[in-house]
Amino acid sequence: VLENYKYILIFPIIILEGPIITVICGFLVYLGHLNGPATYLMLVTGDLIGDILHWLLGRYFKYKPWFKKVAGIFGFDDKKEKVLEEHFKKHPGKTVLFAKVSHGVGGFIQTVAGIAKVDFWVFTKYSFIGSIPKSLILFFIGYYLGNSYLKIDKYLDYSAYFVISAVFLVGIYFIINKYISRKLITE
User: What does R_g of the chain's alpha carbons equal in angstroms?
Assistant: First the structure.
């Protein structure tokens, strides 16, 4: 099936799960099953479409009751939306590029970009700029180290755990800092 429908099968997987499939595609190019330039173009395009889907989720579903309920779990409300909008107005490029290199929280940040009403073309531009080197690096990792893709996937998982833990700890720090500041002000 892969021999006959290789690109048609791989493309939706790239959109849903980019990093490890990018490594695997690099390995398949090394083995001669895929064309290198066509595969790289497909990887960047699929990665960009996945980013855009996250942005669309935040932008167009933020008013849906189920989305508000899920967003509320993560502490989002209308007041924080304004703060996010201000942040993305000041730092759209940095934040979107950070999402590209943050394995584990990238999709979350991209969805938040949609919630914060980041301009579609600005978001797409920075996502595209970030997709080019990210896809190339992962592609070459797969090309040169592809037979170790299970180890690479494990390292990607570890990096995701690290990034998620760091974001969580920074969040706790800011919450505690805000609580202590508020407590000192009221005393």
Answer: 19
> pTM to 2 decimals?
0.71
- Report pLDDT digits (tens) over 81-126: 777 778 888 888 888 888 888 777 788 788 888 888 889 999 999 9
Interatomic CA distance for residues 56 and 98, integer angstroms:
18
Q: Are 19 and 103 in contact (CB under 8 A)?
A: yes
Contacts of 12 (CB under 8 A, 6+ apart): 46
Give Cβ neighbours of residue 8 (< 8 Å, ≥ 6 apart). Answer: none
User: Using H for helix, E for strand and C for coil, what is the string for 46-106?
Assistant: HHHHHHHHHHHHHHHHCCCHHHHHHHHHCCCCHHHHHHHHHHHHHCHHHHHHHHHHCCCCH
Identify whether the C-beta of residue 25 lies closer than 8 Å to the C-beta of residue 43. Answer: yes
43 close to 135: Cβ distance less than 8 angstroms: yes
